[in-house]
TrEMBL record:
SUPFAM superfamilies: EF-hand. It comes from Tetrahymena thermophila (strain SB210). This is EF-hand protein. It holds the Pfam family EF-hand_7. Residues 64-94 form a coiled coil. The lineage of its organism: Eukaryota, Sar, Alveolata, Ciliophora, Intramacronucleata. Residues 111-146, 147-182 form the EF-hand domain. Residues 20-44 have a biased composition (Acidic residues).
């Protein structure tokens, strides 16, 4: 056997040994991981006393899910179930009212609710299924439903059943309907519902604002612009008064929301002068 063949044989033997060692290490790591997983499974089952529940968890392969995670998931499913029951109940109620020719008692039919759902999703920027105070400020103030940031917060608190500081679609509908416990339907509440119905059907006011197939944010912007113009130019005193109310509320909202930015700019402008005065002292 020449030297090149012997070298080749030597390398092959070394590679074989290396592969065997690697396989041994991998099997040891797998065993360590299995042991660690088993320890974690036992740890997760410690807090569960009921033997039937323990057995059920093992049979369904839920050992690696913590008890706390299971409780959270259970609550989420219960919440989803209650919401679906509520939707079904409302849908059945609407169908009953339609069948018995009592449409005047329906706030929004299925088609209108579908459109309102689109409006809601346009406010839900992150797709979480809920919207917060900041997303509601602009539309509620622009539409004249609220007059200040504090008003928006109060309206949210009235319908925020789970106190999450965010509202979901049904709570959004409750705001539009101005639904409060123990209160009957007021003239203002009816006006707000009619306002949204007109928006859904594509026309607002005297027909001068076309809203059909427009994105909700653009509709809000168009309505706000119209109200601001009414505040300045309208000869109709009622429209002028409503426009002035929106102008005042929206101006205040802009001032509050822009205040941190302005203070940061002022701080940034002060810093160079402070540095220059420090260098002059040196």
């Amino acid at each position: 056997m020449n030297s090149s063949q012997s070298e080749s044989q030597f390398i092959k033997e070394k590679l074989q040994i290396s592969n065997e060692e690697l396989d041994d290490n991998e099997s040891e790591n797998d065993q360590d991981q299995d042991d660690e997983n088993k320890d974690q499974e036992e740890e997760n089952l410690k807090d569960i006393v009921n033997p039937e529940i323990k057995q059920l968890i093992k049979e369904r392969g839920l050992n690696m899910v913590s008890y706390e995670d299971l409780i959270v998931e259970k609550k989420e499913r219960e919440k989803e179930l209650n919401e679906n029951r509520q939707k079904l109940k409302e849908s059945q109620t609407r169908q009953w009212l339609i069948k018995h020719k009592k449409r005047e008692f329906i706030d929004f039919d299925d088609k209108e609710r579908s459109k309102l759902k689109q409006y809601f999703r346009s406010l839900d920027g992150d797709g979480s299924g809920s919207i917060g105070l900041r997303e509601l400020e602009d539309p509620l103030i622009s539409l004249g439903i609220a007059e200040s940031k504090e008003d928006v917060k109060k309206i949210m608190d009235q319908v925020d059943k789970d106190h999450s500081n965010e509202i979901e679609f049904q709570e959004f509908l409750d705001i539009i309907k101005a639904k409060e416990k123990g209160n009957g339907r007021s003239q203002k509440n009816t006006a707000i519902i009619n306002f949204f119905k007109d928006m859904i059907n594509g026309q607002l006011g005297d027909g001068d604002i076309q809203t059909k197939n427009l994105p909700f944010q653009l509709i809000i912007s168009t309505i706000r612009r119209k109200k601001l113009l009414d505040a300045i130019m309208s000869t109709n005193q009622e429209k002028k008064k409503e426009g002035e109310k929106v102008m005042k509320a929206y101006g205040k909202l802009l001032a509050i929301n822009n205040a941190p930015k302005q203070s940061n700019k002022q701080n940034d402008s002060k810093q160079p002068s402070q540095r220059s005065s420090f260098s002059n002292k040196k």
